[in-house]
Amino acid sequence: KAGVTQTPRYLIKTRGQQVTLSCSPISGHRSVSWYQQTPGQGLQFLFEYFSETQRNKGNFPGRFSGRQFSNSRSEMNVSTLELGDSALYLCASSPGTGGAGTEAFFGQGTRLTVV
Amino acid sequence: GEDVEQSLFLSVREGDSSVINCTYTDSSSTYLYWYKQEPGAGLQLLTYIFSNMDMKQDQRLTVLLNKKDKHLSLRIADTQTGDSAIYFCADRATSGTYKYIFGTGTRLKVLA
Predict the structure, then answer these.
(1) What is the full DSSP assignment across A41-90?
(2) Best residue in A43, A88, A93 to probe B by mutation, most B CBs within 10 Å?
């Protein structure tokens, strides 16, 4: 069974640009969550999508947005990039039912560098 | 809001046991997890425990949960150099959502 696939693995962008990151969850999983990991703030929850609907949202500015497609693949977009957006962005896949044992599995992440 | 805290560093000798500690604040926590992150990689789920359990053992891993003190620990028996990584404790307070609150991570260094 294939794991969680995030593309691209590495990305370099210039301040002010926008970027789109992609996540393909494990087959059959309907929930996709996104996290930002930085040395200073650690792992912070961005948002979660389930069946194409945003189910939960973290405390990030509106420049961070996401969506989920009918095949459960998800994208997140960051507009007007700032230097502080440089981070490892991790995607997590789960069945989505939220019950016992339905833990999330993470991808390898996309390393975004803003210059 | 919810918060999860861990000590930053732990160093042990190969073959010894490692104990990584975590405290959390949310009294409604339902599921608590331990993840491992190796350099340049994503998070690997190690184990988890439900809030109605006190202990869970999984091969070399033992998780202890003290709900009264909101304290979680991960014990790794016979620690190997391959166990060197960052270990994250995570709290998923509400069933039905996958919003995890992660601790700061504990960097485990195993000395040969």
Answers:
(1) TEEEEEEEEETTEEEEE-S--TTEEEEE-TTS-EEEEE-S--GGG-EEEE
(2) A43
